[in-house]
Records
---
Amino acid sequence: MAAPLPRPPVALSIAGSDPSGGAGVQADLKTFSALGAYGTCVITALTAQSTRGVTHVHEVPVDVVRAQVETLVADVRIDVVKVGMLASAALVETVDALLASGPLAATPVVLDPVMVSTSGSRLLSPDAVDAVRALLPRADVITPNVPEAGVLLDEPPAESAAELPEQAAALRALGARRVLLKGGHLDGTESVDVWHDERGTSELRGPRIATTATHGTGCTLSSAVAALRPRHDDWLPAVREARGWLTEALRHGESLDVGSGAGPVHHFHEQPRWRT
Ligand SMILES: Nc1ncnc2c1ncn2[C@@H]1O[C@H](COP(=O)(O)OP(=O)(O)O)[C@@H](O)[C@H]1O
Ligand SMILES: Cc1ncc(COP(=O)(O)O)c(N)n1
């Protein structure tokens, strides 16, 4: 008889649905699977969306989100949580309470404070920003992009990578324990992200891939960090590995040829090239 396989980490995505499969819980589940985690998900909002953009958002009632989480965690031991689109202040507050009590209170959390899609549609109500600020201390890591960092800090968005370290430190001062401030929206031959934790700041540089397939990069990166965290003894090595894997996913996105707009990145299963 074959030897039993080792138990994979069990990851939970609490996020919105993207029917085109490039972002949201669909991207998170593919990423978990590609990186060796068992994926579970709780859906906060249904979007009508393609690679061309978002045409509709339907928020799931808060008691249904609460029931999804409570039913799941009463049965399944979750090793790591990724939180994505939360749509409204009521959903942000509901998820905050769910992360504060019960088995999830002791579970590592990666929070991607999703606000606007790559195609420019609002995925978070403007009146929910204060609730998201209040949620920041609940996360072990937050992963804002440049526009999201600007909104959270109530400052203009950074215009160059040189401004990222100060903004990352300011986000930590707002209560986030660790910050991965993503510089994908900036220009330059490299894509520069900044990591900030209690030990200080690190610049994480990678090649900027010339591609139209950027739909879901933020969702994919945050779920990759969550999937890989249980395989490392600290956050930064998991972040570095996740970025390396995402670079390959971006490099091969166009070969998927999905949709006519900003296509999805390639959520690889096949090969471990990013490790070399
Ligand atoms: N064209 C690109 N080439 C390489 N890395 C990229 C590119 N675009 C984004 N990234 C990386 O993808 C991740 C997501 O970044 P970003 O696009 O800023 O977030 P979001 O999808 O939330 O807007 C970051 O690690 C960023 O450096
Ligand atoms: C349901 C859902 N959640 C998040 C995003 C953000 O996607 P991106 O990573 O491209 O900014 C999205 N487009 N749809």
---
Amino acid sequence: MFIEPSIGRSKSSGGKGQIEVICGSMFSGKTEELIRRLNRAKIARQKVEIFKPAVDKRYSDSDVVSHDETMIRSTPVDFAGDILLLSGDCDVIGIDEVQFFDEEIITVVQKLSRQGKRIILAGLDMDFEGRPFEPMPSLMAIAEFVTKVHAICMKCGDLAAFSFRLSDSKMKVMLGEKEAYEARCRKCFFEERRDVT
Ligand SMILES: Nc1ncnc2c1ncn2[C@@H]1O[C@H](COP(=O)(O)OP(=O)(O)O)[C@@H](O)[C@H]1O
Ligand SMILES: Cc1cn([C@H]2C[C@H](O)[C@@H](COP(=O)(O)O)O2)c(=O)[nH]c1=O
Ligand SMILES: [Zn+2]
């Protein structure tokens, strides 16, 4: 779908470390793009580790799975700090659903990239109210490369950058799929979210 900015060189051949962020709304293809980059790193014989927050058990306890059921084996972790302990001597680290980690993930990602590793992060840049979803904006600021992907608006068929929640729940974290959220363009999102300023 996209051409990654750089395949990144392995530590053994003098990798400098880099941070890549894949962001966008729900259903925009973040997980598919993450899996695609990680599979290509594996083809390049780089050692790859994949993590996700343990809270996200929608499709599988351990695999990272896209809405289209593409999947890759991953390690669920409770805390961002666990990634430092579990990443060992790998060259490339992929992390999905990054919006569910607290701000410790920023320090963890900085440390790992300074060890020469390529870090690829995927997550929501905005919440159900269309507001920045930390820690994603902070990670986008420190990344070398940011890729914003788009879904298709379920109302009008245009490009969608917003995740519209179909229920009245105001909880920031509410796991769900198509039964709970819909991708929408700006116009179709704010037409039904008049409460958000
Ligand atoms: N509204 C939509 N716009 C685009 N793709 C959609 C939509 N609804 C479902 N999909 C499916 O979702 C897939 C992307 O899934 P995924 O990579 O898991 O997205 P994300 O991680 O961004 O939520 C698409 O390839 C497509 O099959
Ligand atoms: C907008 C929004 C979403 N969530 C939840 C819903 C899903 O479980 C994930 C996003 O998954 P995807 O791979 O990007 O489709 O996040 C949430 O908890 N709060 C929100 O505001
Ligand atoms: Zn629309």
